[in-house]
Amino acid sequence: MNKYELCVVYNPSLDEEACANAQAGVQALIERFGGTVEGVDDWGKRRLAYEIQKLREGVYNFVTFTGEPATPIEVEKRMRIMDNVLRYLITKVEE
Quick one: DSSP state of residue 84? Predict the structure, then answer.
């Protein structure tokens, strides 16, 4: 099992409930493909370094999880088509 960190930037126009649902959906996706969520760090709304889809802000969320090497690949495949996700990045955490 490898340890990973997922950074997700959500659309800032989402209300709190919709954002919480999107975050829960991402966590469910990780668990669906054999991962275990270890921690969630919600940074809230922050200014972006550059415009993405004509937006200057985004809601940042960091998720640390463990999983097999195939887990991040499957999660990325599903996150590509999510409408509320502006950007995402999964990195392997070296211990």
Answer: T
C-alpha–C-alpha distance, residues 80 and 41, integer Å: 21
Instruction: Give the tens place of pLDDT for each residue, 75-85.
Output: 999 999 988 99
* Assigned token pair, 47: 């200014």
Burial 22-60 (b: 16+ CB within 10 A, else e): bbeebbebbeebebebeeeeeeeeeeeeeeeeeeeebbb
For residue 76, the Cα-to-chain-centroid distance in whole angstroms is 9
| Kind of pairing between the strands at 36-52 and 55-67 | antiparallel
For residue 22, report the phi and psi dihedrals to the nearest 5 degrees: -65, -40
Q: pLDDT tens, 4-62?
A: 999 999 999 988 899 999 999 999 999 999 999 999 999 989 999 999 999 999 999 99
